[in-house]
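quick one: flavin-adenine dinucleotide bound model?
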Amino acid sequence: MSLPDRNNPYTFQPYLEWRKGVDYYADDPFLQKMLRVFAGPEAEAIDREAREFSRKASFRWRDLAERIATPENRPYMQHYDGHGNRIDRIVRPYEVEVMEREIFSEGMFSDAVSPWTRFMKIFLLSENSEAGVVCPLACTWGMVALLEKYADSTETKRILSHVKEGIDGEFAIGAQFVTEIQGGSDVPANLVEAVEEGGAWRIYGRKFFCSAAHADYAVVTAKPRGSERVGCFLVPMWLDKEREIRNGYTIDRLKWKLGTVELPTAEITFDGALAHPVGPLDRGVAVVVGIVLTISRLVVGIGGGAGMARGWREGRAYASFRTAFGLPLEMFPMVVAQLADYERYTRRTIAGSFRLYRDFMRLPGGLAPGLTTQEPLDLKRRRFEVRQLVMLQKITVASDTNDFARKGISLFGGHGVMEDFSIFPRMLRDGLVNELWEGPRNVLLTQMHRDFQRVAEWYPADEFVASVLRGADPSLVEDFTREIRELLSLPHLFEMNERTLEICARWDDFCSRFFHAYQDLALAEAESEAGAREYAAGQPAGR
Ligand SMILES: Cc1cc2nc3c(=O)[nH]c(=O)nc-3n(C[C@H](O)[C@H](O)[C@H](O)COP(=O)(O)OP(=O)(O)OC[C@H]3O[C@@H](n4cnc5c(N)ncnc54)[C@H](O)[C@@H]3O)c2cc1C
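yep, here:
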């Protein structure tokens, strides 16, 4: 019976109250289980840290992230001060500055912090989507990995210490400026110039996408004068931060974007910025791609699983709270099927990211530029696997996250697109950016196809498939092996003909299915290991 009632009593309050009280880690037994399985003996200590960190990420930083995500809070530029001095001040809401300071003060990249703690903190933060902080964290991490390998001067060592351990309690923020107006994917076509003047390097030219433009230091690619090869440089962004004196560049404008809107992404013109060369100057592309961008791609994969964890949790709760036609949504088979799909994607994505991170951490000496190293064959192969899996994860998870967010919006109905009601709109807008930066899908697909050709002599693709899917159903491995052999029988993807077009479409589809198989395997292994441990300990397995 449904009689009129002018004082409609309907309220979302119970759902909102529940949501307000969720602790991302404490209320996620699946995440805890993955940590126990993959972090091994360290798990107990990391669990304690994750619980403490989660209380901040799930409540205080969640609220701050929501507050800054409105159009009137977008960063903007003040190019001049009141006295005609060019300052190019990026004005950001107080909340983001506070949140950033608190998060960076955790010293996530310090030697004293376990890599698993770093993983968990980035995961938990990513449940708030990018929020103006995840990109700078990824860039800083990439900068740390780069400098740990190549810092060889007093100044670069000082910068490494500033980003890793902080100076007087202040932790520096990193950025990476590679893309130019003529193309982001084609880094070798960079035109920005580096000139050695009086014993110091200086940078000239324009970078067109510079996120975390408020950073303290940036990794900048540039060609040394007269060279066709790109080099990699470390540019301090300030000559005097207190007095707002920048290091020989102007911030021409901030971009007006669809996603990651809390994050200032700028167009910057360098006009003699003092820079420090990092790594071999003729191998800048390999150095940046092999180390800096690989870390950022890893973060895209970790963040995707985190977004799904939140979406799945909120979707389930909403389906149980919300009624339609007198029934809770969770009583409709269409909705139940959709939720089951969410669960499958969430769990496989998270398990895959844990497993890949574990393999990434086990690489002795960390990431390396390029494909060939002088290392023993087994190690070279492991490096190659991690490199390919990071790219596969980046494209697969970025795309899955967007499907997930779109379906999540549809599950919530009209309320799903309300930015102050659900996380999905922000997740979708940020997710679209995740598909682009650090290498768009087509570029990475092409890159991987080419990489397999380049390593064919020392790592045939069928052995790669067998190694990555070790433990999977043999018939599945056989099918993938047959398929990859055929797809790689075409030596490259650059000739415009029917066969190449067909292979391109199939390669795209193959890569997603292959990475899903990797994720499913990671999940199955984790579940069985967790099950065995819990059986041994006489405890029921958490979901
Ligand atoms: C919000 C945002 C923030 C960003 N922040 C930064 C930043 O901080 N620092 C930075 O350096 N960059 C940044 N980028 C730039 C980003 O990395 C580039 O957009 C990206 O690398 C692609 O470059 P492009 O946009 O010039 O596209 P293009 O290189 O012009 O590519 C256009 C299309 O062509 C395809 N394509 C290009 N080459 C190939 C190929 N060889 N094979 C197959 N397909 C190909 C691409 O996949 C894409 O679909 C940011 C981008 C966005 C959207």
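DSSP finds 15 helices and 13 strands in the chain.
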